[in-house]
Amino acid sequence: MAADEKARAKGEQAEGKAKKVAGGAVGNESLETEGRAEESTGDARQAKEKAKDAFKH
Hints:
Elements: H1 2-26, H2 29-56
Helix pairs in contact: 1-2
């Protein structure tokens, strides 16, 4: 289960970054903002998983 969550976090980060870059390239502020939010969600999920791993060991 933890591997699934880690993969999901990486996917959210990558997708968010792609949207952010694409939005910035074409001047679409809405897409850029959506990308930033999605990337932040992925960062938070990754931090949660790292914290869970730290307590396991």
